[in-house]
Structure of non-reducing end alpha-L-arabinofuranosidase:
Amino acid sequence: IIVNASNAVGRSIPETLFGIFFEEINHAGAGGLWAELVSNRGFEAGGPHAPSNIDPWSNIGDEVYVNISTERSSCFARNIVALRMDVLCNSSGPNICPDGGVGVYNPGFWGMNIKKGKTYKVIFYVKSSGSLNLSVSLTGSSGVPILATANVIASASDVSNWTKMEVLLEAEDTNHNSRIQLTTTLKGVIWLDQVSVMPLDTYKGHGFRTDLFEMLTELKPRFLRFPGGCFVEGEWLRNAFRWKETVGPWEERPGHFGDVWMYWTDDGLGYFEFLQLAEDLGAAPIWVINNGISHNDEVNTSSILPFVQEALDSIEFARGSSDSKWGALRASMGHLEPFDLRYVAVGNEDCNKKHYLGNYLNFYSAIKQAYPDIGIITNCDGSSQPLDHPADFYDYHVYTSASDLFSRNHKFDTASRSGPKAFVSEYAVTGNDAGQGSLLAALAEAAFLLGIERNSDIVSMASYAPLFVNSNNRRWNPDSIVFNSSHVYGTPSYWMQQFFTESSGATLLDTTLQTNSSSLVASAISWKSSMDNKNYIRIKVVNIGSNSIELKIYVRGLDPNSISGSSKTVLTSNKVMDENSFAQPRKVIPVQSPLEAADNVLDVVLSPYSFISFDFLR
Ligand code: AHR
């Protein structure tokens, strides 16, 4: 490899090059990054009619003692269903309640992670036919042990109408498979709605689960594409993501059934929270708007204007002053200043749909007229032929085998240098080569990313997909970050992405790879580290072959005898299909070691199936 690191040579890589794509898939948000512990907190998962689906709520006490049903009697108009609990037993008299009382429990998303010494805020809305004496407890999965408990007591007149209750519970022990339960021994009727349990220690109090949030900060994402994917579209438009239903007080959000990934979400992680997440990560938000097209139905272009208005309103919500209609709603939610929304994607994977182009042109002209600075992303791939419509960026998605993705490191070499830039908004190795996140997949992805880095004059942004999977509900495989209620690990693909974080905003160096091997790809950058404010040259090489390869590295402009402070990092493993897991979360991770002056560092041997990165201090 010959790398030219003399000062005058190099090309700036876009600041935005590497980011993340968050989709509400695999319970990434509901039961994942969004720290709400209760699933189906408003009892609406079965829709707005009664009887509704209260899953995963269950009753405590059999029907001799308690009768659980749903009613359209909530105080919240947009989510009208509430739980009705007819308590038939009492603390004394003929039908005495069983020990511990009767009521309901919710195990959250495959068990709540309750930790000793941590405080949980429980909020619920209640109405009662008489006086109220309710035990609110966090317990093990069978109701024992009790980890934290409080009694909520109120006179009949205080709870004859819907009343908000708030309780702080501090856990006395740790249990990763806990539940919340609300029980009583007082005969009468109790109605419950919007039951929430939130840990107090979410990131900045913004509702993001801290361990999962930290996994994202490690990637130093420069943009956040959200909230889908197919999730934006829906199988049917009636189940698509409609942002207005996801903003305002959480209690008043209707929630919706995401019919592509087949689960209910209470939409606690709504449009506002996505913008907040981007801001907290220091990432530019990229808002994928619903363009009136789902997997199975489409709005005719002649009727698309309400959807266009909805998109304009969403931008006003993000960017408008607090005097504007939608900016005022944002401000009332706690964000007085506008969010820095500069990119909008019109739909997802809809280019071939009948009404895409017609609808797109309506969105494009309306948004450009109102917000000329917003970069608009079309779903139509402009990498092989010119687009027939205006756009600032075009989406490019690729899910394929390792060998195919490896070969696509040349994909953008021949793409047009004029016209819109590419946004590789979804890429990954899938199928047999991927396992549930293999080293092989990560190596092929690395080669693809090296090609993107090399072509970053035309590729502006790239993100892996999907980002998260709750291992209890794997709707798509593989994924970058795997978690359950209490644990998390990154797949090799996750760790591989970390190698590329420093490339955003760096300088691409002129690199020549002279080899007979078809299994090698390389690229080099120079960049300033924000950790120590020093300048580095980073050379990355992937060897996806089964043989070791000897390589000489020449860096013009670097003194090979002065390498103190330099290091190398290797990502490899014993077997090419090795994966990380909850049991072995760090089996396939990058290993860094300092370069000693005595090493003949510029004469290297690349192991089979490995990735190596050299950081030379300039
Ligand atoms: O990333 C998973 C899915 O793949 C996305 O929802 C969709 O855009 C693509 O088909």
